[in-house]
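ok trying again, last paste got cut off:
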Amino acid sequence: MGILLSGADVVDLAIQTETRGEVFYREAASKADTEQARDLFTYLAVEELRHKRVFEALGSAIVVSDLEPAEWQEALDYINATVGQTFFADGTPIRSIPDGSSVREMVERAISFEQQTLLFFYTLRDLVQPANRELIDAIVAEERSHVRRLAAMRGA
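nice, full thing came through this time. structure:
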């Protein structure tokens, strides 16, 4: 049987996701061996913290309560399947950085995390009240820019 989530739980998952990202990027910044990588990872940590604060401010009011039960259950099933596997299972890209990891390896983990975060936020966007979709869209756009910046670092 799957985990039963409420709207507040879904927002809490978004907050946890941003918190894990911030911790990861701070660790990556401390382990990076170039100033360019340290600067990028520090910037991304600050971005994750800012996103976390946005979700905290919105609280459980962000989630639509008038979805049809089948639509809500479909969204929750998707979130359960992706979030549990993506963000919180052992061996996931955001868990921790193994000692001796290169900047390239850290960047690869970060890109994977950002891509998986985008999938989660796209689903979250479908659950929010129309008035809040613009805010989620802005966060999604920022997450996409994170992937682009990380990809550029990978190529450097």
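cool. The mean pLDDT is 79. The first helix runs from residue 7 to 31.
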